[in-house]
Design brief:
single chain; about 190 residues; two-stranded antiparallel sheet; about 65% helix; about 5% strand; elongated
Length: about 190
């Protein structure tokens, strides 16, 4: 069963089952999935720009670069896997995205600019001597942060909440992870 919002209230509606017999996710969940993928793509783009800048300036070693890339690629991979699980209706993935990337990830995106401002710089200082790479990085960071914040809101929209609530307990699982068998004579 999928849900759509009318006048801000979740309303059950029939939908075609997706592959595997699962019902299709409501539009806010599909949009949140797309925004998480957008955030990952922006993060990859920012990483390429940052690494390129560090290498061009000679400010990094191969070990530092490899370590940073390994960490970022791991985070990006986990984010994509969680987004896929979100789209399949896994509530734990919704919460992992919200806390892990929505909380800690957002802090990691804004802490540098906040520290820079706390050091006494003016917001106008950011535009002095602005190069093409800086402008690209800044635009990507704005896109990245915007995608995360909107995805967070969509994951907890009324239609999404109703869909996740409707999915919890609909398929009890046995020890092996397969659907639990119901006693005979029950519906």
């Amino acid at each position: 069963m999928a849900y759509e919002t009318r006048s801000g209230h979740p309303k059950p509606m029939r939908s075609r089952p997706a592959r595997g017999g699962e019902s299709s996710a409501p539009p806010p969940v599909h949009a949140a999935f797309a925004l998480w993928i957008t955030a990952v793509a922006a993060g990859v783009f920012e990483t390429v720009l940052a690494v390129g800048g560090l290498i061009a300036d000679g400010d990094t070693t191969a070990g530092e670069t490899a370590g940073g890339l390994l960490l970022r690629m791991t985070v990006f991979s986990v984010a994509v896997l969680l987004a896929v699980q979100l789209r399949h209706g896994r509530n734990w993935a919704r919460w992992a995205l919200a806390v892990g990337l929505g909380g800690f990830g957002t802090l990691s995106l804004v802490i540098g600019p906040v520290q820079w401002l706390a050091d006494g710089h003016s917001p106008l200082d950011a535009f002095r001597d602005l190069g093409v790479m800086d402008a690209l990085f800044g635009a990507s960071r704005v896109l990245h942060l915007s995608a995360v914040l909107v995805a967070l809101a969509l994951m907890f929209a009324p239609a999404a909440n109703a869909w996740f609530k409707g999915r919890s307990g609909t398929r009890p699982r046995g020890r092996s992870g397969t659907p639990a068998k119901r006693p005979s004579g029950t519906r």
